[in-house]
Amino acid sequence: MGKRGIECWADYDNTGRWCLRIKKARGTLTLEEIRQAALEHEEDFYALIIKAVDADDDQYFDDIDLGDYITLYRATDFLREKNTENEMAVAQEESKSSQRRYAKQYLSQGYKIDLRINSKLEQIASLRSLATKATGVLSDMPKGGSGSSSRMEEIVGKIVDLEAEINEDIKALVDFKTEATRKIKLVDKPDYQTVLELRHLCYHSWEDISAEMHFSIPHLHTLHNAALVEFSKTL
Predict the structure, then answer these.
(1) What would the pLDDT profile of 123-135 be if each residue is shown by its tens digit?
(2) Which residues contact residue 18 at a Cβ distance below 8 angstroms, ignoring those fewer than 6 apart?
(3) What does the buried/exposed string (b/e) look like for 128-147 if buried means 16 or more CB atoms within 10 Å of the residue's CB?
(4) Domain boundary among 45, 75, 105
């Protein structure tokens, strides 16, 4: 028995957590008595806490506030656990971020193919304009001129090559959209499917998607992020 009938000993609670038990034979323990008892018991004392937490942590304090009998816990134990929880949360968010990037990389293929097709169509339009001009030049030249004729053949050849490439790109785009649509249908939630299709297969703006789905843009971003994580699981 210690000073003024106060007894102090180390123990483990029913969760296996280290704790310090303090018992006073008579009367109620004061904060100063608790502090002194803890300091005398632990030479390396740095921080101990009494029950001062929300309901979620009640499991750690089954027998804490009984007047003349009290249990203390190291604050660092709780901080260590909180740091571990934070590290786990950060790791989970990094994993989700990686999943979203992977899904976006896959879904962006269709948009990139579409850009290539549009670029080649513009090149063809430009070449046809040149061909029209070359035709006008040829009609004004004396017969037997070969330079402009050769230039005309070169332009026509480039147009034919670009058209062949466009046909290949269109086939690739159709194949991609077919496969992407199949994968999107594997995602459970209909809203996830819709936002993925509108954004990555139809290339709609967030404003247009908001109007079509009747969701705010911030909510759509949240929905889209969650949809990407689920979609990545189909890849």
Answers:
(1) 999 999 888 876 6
(2) 10, 11, 12, 73, 74, 77
(3) eeebeebeeeeeeeeeeeee
(4) 75
